[in-house]
Specification:
Helix 2 packs parallel to helix 3 (49-62). Strand 6, helix 7 (157-165) and strand 7 form a beta-alpha-beta unit. The chain is globular. It has 327 residues and is α/β, with parallel strands linked by helices. An eight-stranded parallel β-sheet has the order 1-8-7-6-5-4-3-2. Strands 9-10 form a two-stranded antiparallel sheet. It is 41% helix and 14% strand. The chain has helices spanning 4-9, 26-34, 49-62, 82-91, 108-113, 125-133, 157-165, 181-189, 199-202, 211-219, 242-251, 259-266, 268-277, 301-322; strands at residues 15-17, 39-42, 67-73, 96-101, 117-122, 138-142, 172-175, 195-197, 225-228, 236-239. The longest helix is centred in the last third of the chain and has 22 residues, at 301-322.
Length: 327
């Protein structure tokens, strides 16, 4: 398959693994890249810039194909040393970076000066246009269906992708709710030049998460996600369980939400230790998208990508061709 995304990143298929906190490690990123997609390490999963450099080196042992690093830039009382992470990326010779959260503009001179290709994750057309204006090489458009933070506009990919693509000059990738080859074909039909998948890659054999979490995604359906933090204008889509239900009950109280009440429930360390690592899917919050309704097995990354590409080709060449009326 050939699009501007495959040419930009030097990959075989226009399939990108999203950067996911605690999940975007070398074993998953390398497996995606070895299968012809673009794997992504998650910078802030590593506790220090030096640890990130070591993870990049570990990934290079596992794959000779291109891979990238995700850097999510968010406001914080005690922000990570973003500039040092950027420098570690550059010093490690990484040539592809996925940014998310706030605009990557402050870091663009350093990244572009080092020949790094930047793809920025956006949840709206206006943010995509801003990313283009500051020099990003591509954008990843997150629709309302996605895991994690879908923004506050609640626009699904069926509208958001063509709305963005009709105004952008740089290539766009469809992200959020995608997990099948038919959806890859649909994204291409809507004007995207590739797809970005997070949740679907969590339910693979190489993903470094507990088997209980993977099985919960197989057993669940498209209705088993919860939108929390809406009262804080920081909406986040997570797995529906007793902890997310308690968060919603606190948010539903009259008056402003006090985040200090939520913090013990939603702490990232709790979700990592109890859910991702220990496998108790009900004792913390963990992000997953509505694509859960399309996940019914736990394949290897190679099996998943091969299957998706075959299905996309069949849809484009067979299913759609048979309904064309040439008369």
């Amino acid at each position: 398959m050939k699009t501007r995304i495959t040419q930009l990143f030097g990959i075989k298929y226009p399939i990108i693994q999203g950067g996911m906190m605690w999940v975007g490690r070398a074993e998953l990123a390398a497996a995606v890249s070895n299968a012809g997609g673009l794997g992504m390490l998650t910078a802030l999963t590593q506790p220090t810039p030096q640890a990130l450099a070591e993870e990049v080196a570990r990934c290079r042992i596992l794959t000779r194909n291109p891979f990238g690093v995700n850097l999510t830039i968010l406001p914080s009382i005690k922000p990570p040393p973003y500039a040092e992470y950027v420098q570690a990326i550059i010093d490690s010779g990484v040539k592809i970076v996925e940014t998310a959260g706030r605009s990557p503009e402050p870091f663009m001179p350093a990244l572009k000066g080092a020949g790094v290709k930047v793809i920025h994750k956006c949840t709206s057309v206006r943010h995509a246009l801003k990313a283009e204006s500051v020099g990003c090489d591509a954008v990843s458009i997150d629709g309302f269906e996605c895991a994690g933070h879908p923004g506050e506009d609640d626009v699904t990919n069926l509208v958001l992708i063509p709305a963005a693509c009709r105004r952008l000059q740089i290539p766009a990738v469809a992200s959020g709710g995608i997990g099948t080859g038919a959806q890859l074909a649909a994204a291409l039909a809507l004007g995207a030049e590739g797809i970005n998948m997070g949740s679907r890659f969590v339910a693979t054999r190489e993903a470094p998460v507990h088997q209980n979490m993977k099985q919960a995604m197989v057993d669940g359906d498209e209705r088993q996600t919860t939108l929390m933090f809406r009262s804080l204008n920081n909406t986040c889509r997570v797995f529906t369980n007793p902890v997310s239900a308690e968060v919603l009950s606190i948010e539903a109280r009259p008056g402003a939400t006090d985040f200090s009440e939520l913090q013990p429930l939603v702490a990232g360390q709790r979700g990592r230790e109890r859910c991702i690592e220990a496998g108790d899917i009900n004792d913390g919050v963990w992000t997953v998208g509505m694509v859960m309704g399309l996940i019914d097995d736990i394949p290897s990354c190679q099996e998943l990508i091969d299957r998706m590409v075959a299905e996309a080709r069949w849809v484009l060449r067979q299913r759609l061709a048979t309904i064309l009326d040439d008369g």
